[in-house]
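So, read this over?
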Amino acid sequence: MEVGQKFPLTIKRLGINGEGVGFYKRNVVFVKGAIPGEEVTVRLTKVSPKFSEAEILNIRKASEFRQEAPCPVYSECGGCQLQHMTYDAQLVNKRDIVVQAFEKYAKEIVESAEIRPTIGMDNPWHYRNKSQFQVRKEGKRVYAGLFSEGTNQLLNINDCLVQYPVTSKITVATRKILQKLNIPIYDGKSLNGLVRTIVVRTGMRSGETQVCLVTTRHELPHKEELIERIKKIDPSIVSITQNVNREKTSLIFGSDTYVLDGKDAIHEKLGEFAFDLSTRAFFQLNPEQTVHLYNEIKKAAALTGKENVVDAYCGVGTIGMWLAEGAREVRGMDNVDEAIADAKYNARTNDNLQHVRFFPGSADKWLFRWSKEDYRPDVICVDPPRTGLEPGFIRTVLKIKPKRFVYTSCNPSTLARDLKDLSKAYKVEYIQPVDMFPQTAQVECVVKLTLKK
């Protein structure tokens, strides 16, 4: 096989990044934009020892689930991967992505555990409550958007179909104000420019919005006029902040944040719980589906009011708080000190959470320490990063053996790997996929494990 080679290909399944997967002379070929069941003619664009990549030349037999992507920049952007597929088909294929991961890393689990249909959204559009659009300038025109897939070319985006509409409206208006006031724009190559990112987050239930300008330095020309103009964009804006990121990095935020106008945080609710969200505070990007996700975690935990619960990798404490009503005590821990500070504040400002406590530090450290103090949880819930659970944490869990273990994962591959280790002591009852990010290839899972007898 060589780059430029053309051949017909039948697409068998969807890959973990949303590409179609076919096999040519026993070689795996990934084809962006292809759908399982389609027959296509492709041209190889990359050849490596383990797999190849190809582009579609023509579709000889189209899938019944193919549709025209509604986004005008879909093929260039790369932020979404599945808009060319009907939503029902997306949900079916996301479940299959989970099945594939287990077939590869833990085949014995996929043969015995129930993998349920994916829980989707009634309206799989305009669900993201936060946008982070990069800012650049060409000539006199200021752009705000995302980089075209695999390039350093910024794609100007006026209306992102997965963003909550007010975030797009405010971003577009803000970049026009930056252009009108001739405020220096970051060029991506040096730190000579000033404004590098526009971040907008809105509280879907509170109706409050925060606008943050990420800049390379603290000094901000035309600051008063800039603030006044931004305030007039939309009545929902109650907070305008500036974050300074002096580093040449792909990370959005730096360490210093300043309030330019209004409050330092916006208010939001998730279920019955209230949260204050400062500029850098973590919060779920799809609040509607988060409620479904957390309710699935609550179902899997099966609390009766008598259990000690550990919320590992707890972030700002939302899962622990969600489970508090049915628990005797909840203890959460996280390596990020800022997240723990937010978790403690959230617990203090909500009623009936006196039995919920949060601790800074690693999950395996606290579990080991508590076991020495004769505190053993009945239920452990985890929601780790994409890299999965730390090996030391798994070893400690297998020693202390809580009755139930609820694993929430955003990466089917590391989930399968970790469940294979945990299955030494636990039975995987079921795996419930949840679609947190419609139109993308990402899929979340909630897994219920019970201690083997």
